[in-house]
Protein: ATP-binding cassette sub-family G member 5 isoform X3
Organism: Panthera pardus
Amino acid sequence: MTELPSLTSVGSLGLQVNSGPQSSPEEVPTACSRPRHSLGILHASYSVSHQVGPWWDFTSCRQQWDRQILKDVSLYIESGQILCILGSSGSGKTTLLDAMSGRLRRMGTFLGEVFMNGRLLHKDQFQDCFSYVQQSDTLLSNLTVRETLRYAALLAVSRCSPGFLQKKVDAVMVELSLSHVADRLIGNYNLGGISNGERRRVSIAAQLLQDPKVMLFDEPTTGLDCMTANQIVVLLAELARRNRIVIITIHQPRSELFQLFDKIAILSCGELVFCGTPVEMLDFFNGCNYPCPEHSNPFDFYMDLTSVDTQSKEREMETYKRVQMIESAYKESAIYHKTLENIERAKHLKTLSTVPFKTKDSPGALSKLGVLLRTLGLYPEVARFGYFSAALLAPHLIGEFLSLVLLGMVQNPNVVNSMVALLSVAGIFVGSGLIRNTEEMSLPFKILSYFTFQKYCSEILIVNEFYGQNFICGSSNGSVTTNPMCAFTQGIQFIERTCPGATSRFTTNFLILYAFIPVLVILGIVVFKVRDHLISR
């Protein structure tokens, strides 16, 4: 047996990988006070089809380009375990997570079955069972950590008092060691803020608020230094020990992480080359006459062994045959048959009566819409919300009709898109008062602003949201002398400073704004008629 890096237990995880015989994680007893969940994926396949040419070319439209991304993938994992999915770029790791979480694109075809506690899940149930943390963090940079988690809790949990939500947020921050940065901004590249590792913890915490039993992570260590990446994986392993199923994809793991995973799966060209415990992996590849060299990282060695080298045609054929040989050996091994037996056993036993959905009191669409509107800080009146919606509808219609008018002049969609974008940006700079109000502009720009729909739309929105508002900053009397940073104490002051006289032009602005639509319609008809006349000549 080849020697590997020293594999000893880490913290409270209680894991140790030895070269001797080791019981399977399925046989390890757990506390009877917690129900043990199981996840089985049986013969999962996914393929996509693309048309060769554009839709108007009937000859090429009949031809399709098919690609098999996943091919007959079967996995089994129980709560309290963490599964690591290895594979080179394009091997299908992210697609496998998307298939389990119900995030696959509709244009593809998914075949296979996903079982939770032995019960077959329908596609519309995937997102209700699994929490998915993407590779890139989608966090708002201008919110603090506490505000971000509270915002996520409001969107995830309904019918709870504010005190209960705050306790839940505080408990999650303690669990993920975020309490010391609770009041710091998330930030970004320009604003600074928390570190990348802390940002990744916030993304994990946002999913923990729903108390998921199955958590999926797409390359959680990407963009992190070695020490931070190791801490994130240790954290995920600890989350798995708390009666959860954790599945992660990872690209270049360190050898020190080998001992943390209960199961390791290797994907190559969409096929499952191996899935088992670390000890089973060593024994399996030794049986295939591919022992891991001494003092080598087993992750790197086995990933290189199961990857297809496309540098040359000969090398590609050679490595592909090797991968096929290893994949065939795995399908014939006792490890693979044991996986299928565990899935069938879970289907027949069905030890748990229900499927562990994330949150049973998840708010509906209207409740989430209310949370979003409150976060925006719009003026809390139904009539003003109607004005707000009407003011936003007109620019969308104007943009569509403007594109049609330009398309009649320039028969190139790419040029038209660029022209519409440039005209929109120019209208914002000249007419919206973003840089300076129109009264302070030079006469040519002042005249030009009256021909931009952005001028009338922005004045409507400013009056709608600021008229009647009172601002308090500094002392209770709102004195500017007490707090020099308090530039405005009333909304009308901001209106007169930004767009003087807009209050008296509120109705007129609406009429002029919607007058752009029939004008562009008539102009579009004229342009297309002229173009047809020129073509007929």
The radius of gyration is 30 Å. The first helix runs from residue 58 to 61. The chain is about 45% helix and 15% strand.
